[in-house]
Structure formats: structure tokens, C-alpha cells
Amino acid sequence: MRSVARFNFAHLPTPVEDLPRLTQALGGPRILVKRDDQTGLAFGGNKTRKLEFLVAEARAQGADLLISAGAIQSNHCRQTAAAAARFGFDCILVLTGERPAQPSANFLLDQLFGAEIITVADRKDRDRILQETFDHAVAAGKKPYLVPYGGSSVTGAMGYTFAMEEFMQQNVKVDWIVFGTSSGGTHAGIVLGQRLFGFSGKALGISIDEPVARLKANISALATQASERLGERIEFTGDDVLANDDYCQAGYGNFGEGEREAIKLFAHNEGLLLDPVYTGRAAAGMIDLIRKGYFKNDETILFWHTGGQPALFADKYSRAVV
């Protein structure tokens, strides 16, 4: 397997923990959790794994500026800003949504890490403004590196390819891995990693905001491209990608009763915090599927916690969650 440049700054391996009281409350299969909310960078999260490879690539290319984009309360952008501060890069974030009068949660942390923030009212304008920001930086004599949305590129997918190797080395037997999926980098890495490192169970992505057909196309293509980066092309198709889009009709970042119940169940039964956008929705889907009998009672589910808890403290969500 070909080596890939990586900065080792995440707190790894993240632990796998049993959730016996949640399992009992749901009366279904045994539930475990993989604690990627504890990866260590700026409150942790799944993007830290991706940034180990993305920041290494940026440094190798001689970049002095990281530019990325996301929603106002983006977990990805929070971790990107923190990585930039840690490794001496400037940082510009292009964030979709209204700039809050009082900074809180991830938006507050972006500012604490010294990122320059550009807000965009309409998401359809974000890619254009992101490109303009990149071009202006080049014209100003900077050497920018564009960190892709969600860290989801061939380079970013390496984070979860090797996360699967880490999990397999923990020798925990599970039948299912369940996690939130959106921009596809985490999902593509898991798909590639399960093939490379011999995970025999199933990996189910609960869609946060994308239809299954689009997820299958994007993730299978990204997993194929990522395999080439490691030196051996593996051709993935949509049949290799297991995803469910039954729980994303409300749209990205829109908080509903499913997310509220999931957050409360995890908090009340295990003292474990989910976030309102990603893990809250993924857990809501998992809980509903357990109740519908989708998983067998004698199976074991690993819920891969991808972080994001700082968003709980944004006004939009803190008022709605309790």
C-alpha cells in the first residue's frame, strides 16, 4: 500500500464504549459507540481525521492560507480554523447564513482561532464567492489551499480509510456501523477501509441532506479514486454504498422531534452528547430503524459518533433541544 503524507495530531485511537442503558431503553440490539467526538482538536469531531491528511498536503504544496466553506455553525470549518492556528496557516472561511449579532458555538470558536469570516446569504452563491476568495488571495500574493467542503476529497477520505484500520485493530465484533453521511468523505473512507481491512459487517450511512442516488454515485466514485491514491484501483459501484435518506426531508440543519428525542435519549441514559445536525439526525434514524425491526435483536450496532456538540450552544438549537 502506498504511503500518504499525514500529520499525526488527532487523539487516536478513539475509544469504543458500550451503551447498556440506551440498549435497554430501546429494547433492541446491543449498541456501542466509537467516540470520534474525542479526536482532540477544538472539541474534536470526524473532520480532525481528514485534516491530518489535508493539512499535510497543504504544507507539502507550500500553502500559507487555508480556505474552506460551510454553514454558519459548521463543525468542519471550526476544526479547519483550529488546524490552521495550530500549524501557522492563515484561514478564511466562507459561511452560509446570517452573521449572528452575538457569536456563539462554532461561529464563536472560528473567531477565537483567528479565522477571517465571509458570510454568504444564499447557499447557491457560496461556490462562486469561495472561488473569488481563492482568486483574490492568489492575486494578493498568498498561497492558498482550498480545503474541500466537509473535507471530502480523495485526500480527506484517507482519514476514515485508516479509521477503519484503527477500528479493526481494536478487535470489537459488530454487525453494523451506523453514522451520519452528507458530503461523502467519511462514508467513502469507511467503504474503502472496510474492503482493505476486512470488515465483514455492514456500514450504513444515515443521510443528513442528500438523496440516496446522489450519495451512492458520489461516494462510490470517491472511494474508487481514493483506492488509486493508495496504489491499487478498486472499482466501487453504488451497490457497495449502503445509505438511507428517510430522515433528511426536513433539510440540512432543521431541527425536529426525531433529533430532539435522540439527543435526550443519549443524554439521559448515557450522559453522552450528540449534536443537532449530524449525530442527532443519524441517531434518530438508527433509533427509528431499531423500533421498526430493521436490525436483529441479537446483532451489535456501532454508532460512530462524528462529533459536533458545540452546535448545541447556538441559539437556534439551545432553545429547541430542551
Low-confidence stretches: none
**CATH fold label of the largest domain:** Rossmann fold
Please name the CATH architecture of the largest domain: 3-Layer(aba) Sandwich
| Helix content range | 40-55%
Order of helices and strands: EHEHEHEHEHEHEHEHEHHEH
Question: Which CATH class of the largest domain?
Answer: Alpha Beta
Outline: globular
Kindly report the spatial arrangement of strands forming the biggest sheet: 1-2-10-7-8-9
Number of helices: 11
Tally of strands: 10
**Span between N and C termini?**
48 Å
What is the structural class? alpha/beta
Mean pLDDT: 97
Describe the structure.
- By secondary structure, the chain is of the alpha/beta class.
- It folds into two domains: 16-45 and 153-321, Rossmann fold (3-Layer(aba) Sandwich), CATH 3.40.50; 47-151, 3-Layer(aba) Sandwich (Rossmann fold).
- Helix content is 43%, strand content 16%.
- It is built from eleven helices and ten strands.
- It has helices at residues 20-26, 47-60, 75-87, 105-112, 126-139, 154-169, 185-197, 212-229, 257-270, 279-291, 315-321; strands at 16-18, 30-35, 65-71, 90-96, 116-120, 144-146, 176-181, 202-207, 242-244, 300-305.
- The strands form two sheets. Strands 1-2-10-7-8-9 form a six-stranded mixed beta sheet, sandwiched between helices.
- Helix 3 (75-87) links the parallel strand 3 (65-71) and strand 4.
- It is globular and about 60 Å long.
- The N and C termini lie far apart (48 Å).
